[in-house]
Amino acid sequence: MEKKPRRGCRRDFLLAACPLVPLLAACETDKVKSNGAAEIFDIGTEPALASAGGSVKKTFGANNNGKPVLITRISANVFSVLTTVCTHMGCEVGLPAADQPIICPCHGSNYNAADGSVVKGPAPASLKKFASSYDSKKNTLKNLVI
What's the rounded Cα separation, in Å, for the pair 77 and 74? Predict the structure, then answer.
């Protein structure tokens, strides 16, 4: 017996119309992969990143579709680099205050500044996280955008 989509249920309709949809969703991860172009960012150029809890938004050309990334200093040698695009409606999230969540001004979603996880909805998923590495001798982050 063929399963018919329920009236008004977009997900069931898409699954019936395109059986590859679940495969595409399975490819998603919480880390955004690099396109191979290394970006190097000098932490010393941003006074807000001098101590733990500081955050800045930076745009790196067309990377991240031209949208800024949120760079937060978690501790002396640990940084978090997240997209600023809210997973609820695509609004740009704000800068977090020290030891506070990242807040989307559109509908109030809250995200953890360290890993981008949802603290309070309506956001359905974590902010995308970018891989990065910190060089304490040069005070730089590298490989931080796609």
Answer: 8
Residue 83 exposed, middle or buried by CB count within 10 Å (0-12, 13-18, 19+):
buried
Question: What are φ and ψ of residue 130, in 5° steps?
Answer: -105, 135
The pLDDT tens digits for 61-73 are 888 888 999 999 9
- β-partners of residue 29 are none
Confidence bin at 113 (pLDDT 50/70/90): very high
**Strand ordering across the sheet containing 40-42:** 40-42, 140-142, 133-135
Chain-centroid distance, C-alpha 4: 36
The C-alpha atoms of residue 116 and residue 140 are separated, in whole angstroms, by 21
CA trace torsion 32, 125, 28, 74 (10° rounding): 30
